[in-house]
Design a protein that fits this description.
heterodimer, A: about 110 residues, mainly beta, 7-stranded mixed β-sheet, 4-stranded antiparallel β-sheet, 11 strands, B: about 110 residues, about 50% strand, globular
Chain lengths: ~110, ~110
């Protein structure tokens, strides 16, 4: 089973700043099977990034993903108030699929 | 556009079976996989299981064999059965589809209580 550990647990930044979120896997994950989701309160998760670095339809180019092996990163440049949410990494390369525990991004 | 909508009881008694159905529209079901994911109140996401168009199913071992996921593509539906539920199974249940779970339902709260 692949365990995903996200850091930090909470990130508090101001509009216009840059956020860097980390996801570490307990074993290597193919870049084809690493995704990132955004979940705002009371809403379903929304796919942001798939295949490590590909933005889903309609996702602003402020969001970017990178990484390989066991270490992956989601970067949000020039933060906006609506970026306030919990972000989850997700691997779907080997069952059981798994999610990280989430990083809460707060915009001051 | 692609839409997924769950249906099923919002309250299930302990030791009984939780049953949910997800109805899909706007996309063919013969693409990728169809998943169930849940989120206990105030907590993170847990993958429950998935099924492919051809019927191949996989589920999370943490649920101790209590999960069955089935598909009826002719009705554009897939379903979840979770047996022997306890209070720990209280959660918002989502259905999702697509190669990277591109599409999600809005989620439905299922409470396990007598």
């Amino acid at each position: 089973e692949v365990i995903l550990t996200q850091s930090p647990g909470t990130l508090s930044l101001s509009p216009g700043e840059r956020a860097t979120l980390f996801c570490r896997a307990s074993q290597s994950v193919s870049i084809s099977y690493l995704a990132w989701f955004q979940q705002r309160p009371g809403q379903a998760p929304r796919l942001l990034i798939y295949r490590t670095s590909h933005r889903a339809t309609g996702v602003p180019d402020r969001f970017s993903g990178s990484g390989s092996g066991t270490d992956f990163t989601l970067t949000v440049s020039e933060l906006e108030p609506e970026d306030s949410a919990v972000y989850y990494c997700h691997q779907h390369g080997s069952t059981p699929y798994s999610f990280g525990q989430g990083t809460k991004l707060e915009i001051k | 556009q692609v839409q997924l909508q769950e249906s099923g009881p919002g309250l299930v008694k302990p030791s009984e079976t939780l049953s949910l159905t997800c109805t899909v529209s706007g996309i063919s079901m013969n693409t990728d996989s169809w998943s169930w994911i849940r989120q206990p109140p105030g907590k993170g996401l847990e993958w429950i299981g998935h099924i492919y168009y051809g019927g191949s199913m996989s589920s999370n071992p943490s649920l101790w064999g209590r999960v069955t996921v089935s598909i009826d593509a002719s009705k554009m539906q897939f379903s979840l059965k979770l047996t022997s539920v306890t209070a720990a199974d209280t959660a918002v249940y989502f259905c999702a589809g697509g190669w990277a779970s591109d599409y999600w339902s809005q989620g439905t709260l299922v409470t396990v209580s007598s």
